[in-house]
Task: structure prediction
Amino acid sequence: TQDGKPTPKVQVVESRMAGGGRVEGNNKPQAPANVATIVVEVAPGSNAEKAGVKAGDKIRFFSAVFTVSDPIDIMSYYANPPKKENRRGVFVADGQSFDKVMAALASNAQPHVTAKEGVLEVAESVLLVLERPADN
Result:
């Protein structure tokens, strides 16, 4: 813990253009395709450090929790609306805005349906695929 607060499991990251320049402001509706989310700091003792994440790593994709619904039957939509539930899947971070990447990463804390239908649980681990620069 830091100052009595739990240590975050993931530390500060930022979005950068492919050429290395930072993306400024959050007023863009979509990030350009050449935007990447780069780890700039890993907290000592954090789960990220234990997993080998290093500053400079590019986040490529990871597990996330998505809200999905059953197929829609237009004839019975109002009498029997589609059921929505949280399911775990893979989020591709390439070209996504910083806020969207962070929200998807944080979604792993949401309860989701497991392979045992109807059983809700929070994942104990997160699949995280990183690209490490050659000089790191």
Remarks:
- DSSP finds two helices and seven strands in the chain.
- The helical segments are 47-50, 98-106.
- The chain has a mean pLDDT of 75.
- The beta strands are 13-17, 35-39, 58-69, 84-92, 112-113, 120-121, 128-131.
